[in-house]
Design goal:
single chain; 236 residues; mainly alpha; two-stranded antiparallel sheet; 8 helices; 62% helix
Length: 236
């Protein structure tokens, strides 16, 4: 466990004296409460995640997740991945629909073979996520070697991609062409924060790693467009 304020190792984040009675531990180095999120309501934790505070990621990645039973943790992460893919597919579909409604309104892309089209979008989203995570892992390996828990690294990226849930708002209310890129940018900055906290590294290095993964995704898009001219290339 670590102090969520400064990242210093602590033996525990609270001491329990009796049932329902406990006291939060103070960090020996910064003298602040080691983990204030122990007594926070879930909604307050979510708000700090949206604000991308490093403290809340330290709480989740170092103090909370290690206490979860491994099987349950893996099952939860595996449930998050299909959700991320589903919302990514919707973003791809929304982007294509807007693109063709402006550029080529006479072309009905999604009515010719809808199942094939949506299936291809799913596999594209899967390939994007796979390449994105693989490049992050490889870049981290090149910079930090074997002394990293790469399973935990992948979980950090998946958890910090929770911003894809904001796509639900696009499904409920009418949105413009800027909403999707804003959601993707929010996810990228969340990934940067999670990576910086997990690796205990600088902002510059974490930005470089995520940027390399984004460039790899763009290269993959170029290959996909070469194979299927009906697709488009986007940075976000």
């Amino acid at each position: 466990m670590i102090c969520v304020e400064c990242g210093h190792d602590v033996s525990d984040v609270y001491k329990e004296f009796s049932r329902g009675s406990f006291r939060l531990t103070r960090c020996d180095r910064c003298r602040k409460t080691a983990d204030k999120y122990v007594e926070f309501e879930l909604m307050l934790v979510i708000i700090d995640l949206i604000l991308q505070k490093a403290q809340v990621y330290r709480h989740l990645l170092f103090n909370q997740l290690p206490t979860v039973e491994p099987t349950l943790l893996h099952r939860t992460i595996l449930k998050l991945v299909p959700g991320i893919l589903f919302f990514d597919v919707y973003l791809h579909w929304h982007r294509l629909r807007l693109h063709y409604s402006v550029r080529r309104p006479a072309l009905v892309v999604f009515d010719v073979a809808p199942f094939d089209r949506y299936a291809s979008l799913f596999w594209i989203a899967t390939a994007h996520l796979f390449v994105y995570i693989v490049v992050i892992v490889v870049a981290t390996r090149l910079l930090y070697g074997k002394g990293v828990d790469y399973g935990q690294l992948v979980r950090s990226i998946v958890i910090s991609s929770f911003g894809k849930l904001l796509v639900v708002l696009m499904m409920i209310w009418e949105s413009n062409a800027y909403y999707g890129p804003i959601v993707n940018l929010f996810v990228l900055t969340s990934n940067v924060t999670a990576l910086r906290v997990f690796l205990k590294t600088t902002l510059l290095k974490s930005v470089c790693i995520i940027s390399a993964a984004v460039v790899a995704k763009i290269c993959l898009q170029l290959v996909i467009v070469a194979l299927d001219p009906g697709m488009i290339v986007t940075v976000l």
